[in-house]
Amino acid sequence: MSDNSFGKLFRVTTWGESHGPAIGCVIDGCPPRLKLSEEDIQPWLDRRRPGQSRFTTQRREPDQVRILSGVFEGQTTGTPISLMIENTDQRSKDYGDIATRYRPGHADIAYDMKYGIRDYRGGGRSSARETAMRVAAGAVARVLLRTLVGEGVKIRAALTGIGGQTIDPSRWDWDEVERNPLWCPDAESVGPWEALLDSIRKDGSSIGATVEVVAEGLPAGLGAPVYGKLDADLAGAMMGINGVKGVEIGDGFAVAALRGEQNADPIAPGPQFASNHAGGILGGISTGQPIVARFAIKPTSSILTPVPSITRDGESVEVMTKGRHDPCIGIRAVPVAEAMMACVLADHLLRDHAQCGWGR
Amino acid sequence: MSDNSFGKLFRVTTWGESHGPAIGCVIDGCPPRLKLSEEDIQPWLDRRRPGQSRFTTQRREPDQVRILSGVFEGQTTGTPISLMIENTDQRSKDYGDIATRYRPGHADIAYDMKYGIRDYRGGGRSSARETAMRVAAGAVARVLLRTLVGEGVKIRAALTGIGGQTIDPSRWDWDEVERNPLWCPDAESVGPWEALLDSIRKDGSSIGATVEVVAEGLPAGLGAPVYGKLDADLAGAMMGINGVKGVEIGDGFAVAALRGEQNADPIAPGPQFASNHAGGILGGISTGQPIVARFAIKPTSSILTPVPSITRDGESVEVMTKGRHDPCIGIRAVPVAEAMMACVLADHLLRDHAQCGWGR
Amino acid sequence: MSDNSFGKLFRVTTWGESHGPAIGCVIDGCPPRLKLSEEDIQPWLDRRRPGQSRFTTQRREPDQVRILSGVFEGQTTGTPISLMIENTDQRSKDYGDIATRYRPGHADIAYDMKYGIRDYRGGGRSSARETAMRVAAGAVARVLLRTLVGEGVKIRAALTGIGGQTIDPSRWDWDEVERNPLWCPDAESVGPWEALLDSIRKDGSSIGATVEVVAEGLPAGLGAPVYGKLDADLAGAMMGINGVKGVEIGDGFAVAALRGEQNADPIAPGPQFASNHAGGILGGISTGQPIVARFAIKPTSSILTPVPSITRDGESVEVMTKGRHDPCIGIRAVPVAEAMMACVLADHLLRDHAQCGWGR
Amino acid sequence: MSDNSFGKLFRVTTWGESHGPAIGCVIDGCPPRLKLSEEDIQPWLDRRRPGQSRFTTQRREPDQVRILSGVFEGQTTGTPISLMIENTDQRSKDYGDIATRYRPGHADIAYDMKYGIRDYRGGGRSSARETAMRVAAGAVARVLLRTLVGEGVKIRAALTGIGGQTIDPSRWDWDEVERNPLWCPDAESVGPWEALLDSIRKDGSSIGATVEVVAEGLPAGLGAPVYGKLDADLAGAMMGINGVKGVEIGDGFAVAALRGEQNADPIAPGPQFASNHAGGILGGISTGQPIVARFAIKPTSSILTPVPSITRDGESVEVMTKGRHDPCIGIRAVPVAEAMMACVLADHLLRDHAQCGWGR
Question: In which domain, by residue range, is D98 found?
Answer without folding.
Answer: 5-356
